[in-house]
Amino acid sequence: MRARLRGTAGALRFEQKQPAAEHGLVTTSIVALLLIVVGLAWHQRPAARTARTLRRLESRYFRKVHMPPHMARDALQRHVARLRDRHPGRGPVWYVAQVLADLERDRR
User: How far apart are CA 18 and CA 2, in angstroms?
Assistant: First the structure.
């Protein structure tokens, strides 16, 4: 940072100038911080969390049933459809979690 005294008609004025490199670094830091905050907010939005949870539960189901992927997907859809008929109005995560709980209960 450079400081310079300037004399005018009867008064001294003190000026500070930031070098261009420092100004660019501050601007870049602010933009980077803003992008990080926006990225975190985007990642944590409720729809994304629900979709991630649903994918995790579905992959757990596919690992637990020992079937080819297309048969396992069909079986999961049938189980979820049966639960939707019995318990309408729940979210998709709840249905897949119930299917997993039923599968684990039946294997004991």
Answer: 7
Under a CB-based contact definition with an 8 Å cutoff, are residues 45 and 30 in contact?
no
- 21-76 pLDDT, tens per residue? 677 788 888 889 989 888 877 766 777 788 889 999 999 999 999 899 999 999 99
What pTM did the predictor assign? 0.57
Q: What is the DSSP string of the chain?
A: -EEEEEE-SS-EEEEEE--HHHHHHHHHHHHHHHHHHHHHHHHT-HHHHHHHHHHHHHHHHHHHS-S-HHHHHHHHHHHHHHHHHHSTT--HHHHHHHHHHHHHHHT-
Q: Are 1 and 14 in contact (CB under 8 A)?
A: no
Q: Extract the tokens encoding 38.
A: 């926006």
Token pair, residue 6, equals 């300037």
